Amino acid sequence: MRKLWGRLTSVNVQKAVWGLDETGLDYERIDAGGAYGVVDDPAYRALNPNGLVPTLEEDGFALWESNAILRYLAATSPALALPDDPHARAPTEQWLDWQATSFTPAMRDAFWQLYRTADPDRRLIENSLKQGEAMAAILDARLADRDFVAGDRFGIADIALGCAAHRWLNLPVNRVERPALRRWYERIAARPAASRALGEPIA
Ligand SMILES: N[C@@H](CCC(=O)N[C@@H](CS)C(=O)NCC(=O)O)C(=O)O
Fold first, then answer.
1. Which of the listed residues 10, 14, 31, 112 should we mutate to test ligand 1's pocket, taking the one with most ligand atoms within 8 A of CB?
2. Non-local CB neighbours of 114 within 8 Å, separated by 6+ positions
3. CB–CB of 57/2 below 8 Å?
4. The domain that contains 47 carries what CATH number?
5. How far is the CA of 152 from the centre of ligand 1 (A)?
6. Distance between CA atoms of residues 50 and 69, nearest Å
7. pLDDT averaged over the chain?
8. Does some domain include residue 202?
């Protein structure tokens, strides 16, 4: 049986859940991480030495890193298949990396200070929100004249960035309104396969 390890309040687990739900594959999700623990058990560390979630496990095959899981699902499931042509495929790779290295790190301090810190540091929050706005402006501009982040159909870049946008748009702060980003988010969030991933509070 295919297993996905990870609590649904993790944005990285949400990406894997959404991806799996788009494929229609059967899987069992097992709560792990945060208050659920599990991630320090030797058996879990043998699957994922980082002690982080998510981890996908399939008959002796274990895969961690949420965007690697999305790429794997795209490689193995027609529903999420990427184009073979390098030019057609490259934007997906680019936007996946941008999510992981730019957009999500920009908002990380704001999220941690607002949700995971007893005595939040306003300066860290403000600085992080400023960086997050810069990233949101880039994504909004990208979406001004297109329905999906990469290519002409829904794909794994929309999943990765959709989960990041879900967090960004639900932070309890004032944001600049980004109409194209908002329209895209609402369109992809309405997909049936998004409901489990995006149905939980963000923390
Ligand atoms: N780059 C990794 C990051 C994984 C990660 O940081 N996961 C967090 C949750 S979002 C985690 O496991 N935190 C510890 C915990 O939940 O116990 C990925 O994309 O999968």
1. 10
2. 120, 125, 171, 172, 173
3. yes
4. 3.40.30.10
5. 30
6. 15
7. 97
8. no
Question: For position 18, what pLDDT does the model report?
Answer: 98
Residues 145 and 84: their CA atoms lie apart, in Å, by 24
Q: Is residue 203, in this structure, part of any structural domain at all?
A: no
Nearest CA to ligand 1 atom 10: 10
* Residues 69 and 93 reside in one and the same domain: no
Dump pLDDT digits (tens) for 41-81.
Answer: 999 999 999 999 999 999 999 999 999 999 999 999 999 99
HSE-CB at 84 with a 13 A cutoff on CA atoms is 1
Full residue range of the structural domain in which residue 57 is found = 3-80
Tell me which of 53, 69, 71, 200 to substitute to probe ligand 1's pocket, judged by most ligand atoms within 8 Å of the beta carbon. 53
Closest alpha carbon to 51 in 91, 6, 109: 6
The pLDDT, as a whole number, for residue 202 is: 84
